[in-house]
Amino acid sequence: MSEQYQLGPTSHFVTENMNQNLKIFSIGVAGGVVGIFLTGFLMFGFFAISDKLNRIDIYCQEGKTTEKSGIICELLEIKDRGETLKVSDIVSSPTEYENKILKDKTTSGKFLEVKVKIKNERKESVGISGITLIDKEGRKYENMWETTDWIDKNLQGGNVGAGLSRDFTQIFEVSKDTQNFKVKVMLWKSALVD
To answer: Can you give the residue range of the structural domain that contains 155?
Structure first.
């Protein structure tokens, strides 16, 4: 014989109250998800605007002087270093350990040493954040961090103080047929480099 339970008059109230709590909880979760999304979206927008306001991109071509936002850029020289960067050509004196592990760098293309002069006519310092080499086909080449031993440390990057100028040198690996270059120099305004 099975027993049957009969729900009292309060069971309807409990069920209705649970449904209402579930609705409130669902709305709260949805609101939290929307809030997290909006916060991320606003932060992305803030950093994108901040990046635009604090970065200066200037393009330089050999034999021409370019000016933008108080920055003067000259592409001084593009030197073909060939297919091999020899350990014997390293600028800094390698330690005994480095002499054992360093090897010549080779490429199926060629290495180009690019020298750029930046003159800062602004009232605050700017910091160099990168140099991109662009060929006549629009192909972009990033500087090679692993070739810094072949460049004087004083020419590798850093800040350019207000009213000062500074030369920068980077080495790029490019294809053999590449020619007719321009350089994109990316600088940060002092708010981010001081």
So the answer is: 55-193
**Domains held by the chain: number:** 1
Which CATH number goes with the domain that contains 170?
2.60.40.1240
* Per-residue model confidence (pLDDT) at position 156: 65
**Whole-model pTM?**
0.65
Residue 154, in any domain of the structure: yes
Residue 74 region by backbone torsions, left for phi larger than 0, else alpha for psi between -120 and 50, else beta? beta
Q: For 97-127, what is each residue's pLDDT tens digit? A: 666 677 888 899 999 999 999 999 999 999 8
182: Cβ contacts below 8 Å, ≥ 6 apart: 59, 60, 61, 75, 134
What are 73's strand-pairing partners? 66, 118
